[in-house]
Design goal:
Helix content: 40-55%
Mean pLDDT: 94
Number of helices: 16
Shape: globular
Distance between the termini: 63 Å
Order of helices and strands: HHEHHEEHHHHHHHEHEHEEHEEHEHEE
Number of strands: 12
Largest sheet: 7 strands, mixed
Low-confidence stretches: none
Strand order of the largest sheet: 6-5-4-7-8-12-11
Strand content: 15-25%
């Protein structure tokens, strides 16, 4: 096609599509804004006009309306015929008091520690230590020093928030053996282990993490302290003995050498019939659900060597740790369960 030719309708549509995609970042910025402001909490008791919302939030009503109409166009909130705004089913998950609230997860995923490095993806591709240049240290060191502020624990609260929904999917997708001891390795506040223990009354659990994290764990919500214990430590040093090991969102944060080191420490503690469950995105040959590639890019931009792996890449790492791939369970989400067993 010459420069003087007109675009045909299909070409025009594809060109406009490309332009639309290039503006996607403002949608995430708007989503972060309504989460920060707590807009959903102000609609729990019923729909409100933009004027009412603006007064309650102490913001400019015209600016707020421009954000809210974008939210409504994406199904987050609804704009009614009388000019008021109301919650949609998706928006209810932004409510602070919702039992499966995702507000903290949205705030974490749109935090500057993900946002700013992604803006210099070109630099990352050229080998620049973009995250370290921006924040002066690697991701986890940054959060160890900065995960408390006036808004609460952004990283741990965000991970716990994501887990509230994800753990339901994972626990429904795996049949845990009766009377097993399940160890949640670097399990944070213990939300995954809590879900496992609630669904499986014969199981007991071990929450393994840094002592500072264990001190604020949520396992007391089980209302049965006889079924769980906490063990402080680092997976780079050792792991406790158990029948089932769960590593959710762990290996994907680390390059292969570090991941193999973690796997070897698990293997040393495993019994001959123990199982190791890796719970994170697995890049499939095709039909990857939305979220698998996106999480991989978050790992590319904010973690030093982190990545979402293929089934073969997991198998290769297992071989180096005296383990073997037993099976992969794909859920209908961006998460999979990779089961490994001792290579004996």
């Amino acid at each position: 096609m010459s420069a003087l030719d007109r675009l045909d309708p299909l070409e025009r549509r594809e060109a406009i599509f490309l332009l639309e995609q290039s503006m996607g970042f403002v949608w995430q910025a708007a989503l972060r804004t309504v989460a920060l402001l707590g807009v959903a909490d102000h609609l729990v008791d019923g729909n409100k006009t933009i004027e009412q919302l603006a007064v309650a939030l102490k913001v400019d009503k015209d600016f707020l309306y421009r954000i809210m109409r974008v939210m409504a166009s994406r199904g987050i909130f609804s704009e009614l015929s009388d000019g008021t705004f109301d919650l949609t089913q998706s928006a209810r998950f932004l409510c602070t008091e919702h039992p499966y609230s995702l507000r903290a997860a949205v705030l974490m995923l749109t935090d500057k520690t993900f946002w700013q490095p992604a803006a210099d993806m070109e630099g990352i591709l050229k080998g620049k230590p973009v995250f370290n240049d921006l924040f002066g240290m690697p991701f986890y060191e940054y959060w160890e020093q900065n995960d408390t502020n006036a808004r609460g624990n952004v990283f741990h609260a965000g991970m716990a928030s994501m887990s509230s929904v994800e753990n339901e999917v994972l626990v429904d997708s795996y049949e845990f053996p009766k009377n097993a001891v399940v160890a949640d390795i670097a399990g944070g506040l213990g939300n995954l282990l809590l879900c496992v223990l609630r669904r499986n009354p014969s199981i007991s659990g071990i929450l393994f993490d840094q002592e500072s994290v264990l001190n604020v764990n949520r396992l007391h919500l089980l209302n049965d302290e006889t079924r769980w214990q906490t063990v402080p430590g680092s997976f780079f040093d050792t792991c406790p003995s158990a029948d089932i090991y769960m590593l959710k969102y762990i290996l994907m944060d680390w390059p292969d050498a570090k991941s193999v080191q973690i796997l070897k420490n698990c293997r040393r503690a495993m019994k001959h019939n123990s199982r190791l469950l890796i719970m994170e995105p697995v890049i499939k040959a095709d039909n990857n659900e939305q979220g698998r590639y996106e999480i991989d890019l978050l790992l590319l931009t904010s973690f030093d060597g982190g990545r979402a792996r293929t089934e073969k890449e997991f198998s290769d790492m297992f071989n180096l740790a005296d383990l073997k791939l037993n099976r992969v369970i794909h859920t209908n989400t961006y998460l999979s369960i990779v089961e490994a067993i001792p290579n004996t």
